[in-house]
Task: inverse folding
């Protein structure tokens, strides 16, 4: 089935509008013709990435959840007391989203290392 622009607009007006807009465009930085090589490169990029306290806080929905994360990591010795206090202060004064937008389920699979 072959479509020209007018047929596309008639049959799929929302899709045609979205394709014509400047929103939701993604630049393609490279193209791989070998899927296995691409998959290996993609997984190696985040293979050794270790999330930090901010990554965990960004998965929280509430300040209470974030405070539990801070307390847990502080108790394990992965956070110094002074840093934990600064995080709690920011949490109290600015809220959980002040650490960044929420990281949803499968965030690292969709976005890679960040």
Result:
């Amino acid at each position: 089935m072959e479509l020209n622009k007018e047929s596309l607009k008639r049959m799929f007006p929302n899709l045609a509008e979205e394709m014509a807009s400047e929103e939701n465009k993604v630049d393609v930085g490279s193209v791989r013709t070998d899927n296995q090589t691409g998959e290996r490169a993609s997984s190696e990029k985040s293979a050794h990435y270790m999330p930090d306290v901010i990554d965990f806080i960004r998965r929280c929905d509430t300040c209470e959840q974030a405070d539990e994360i801070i307390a847990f990591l502080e108790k394990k010795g992965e956070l110094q007391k002074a840093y934990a206090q600064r995080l709690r202060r920011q949490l109290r004064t600015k809220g959980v989203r002040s650490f960044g937008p929420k990281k949803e389920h499968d965030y690292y699979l969709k976005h890679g290392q960040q």
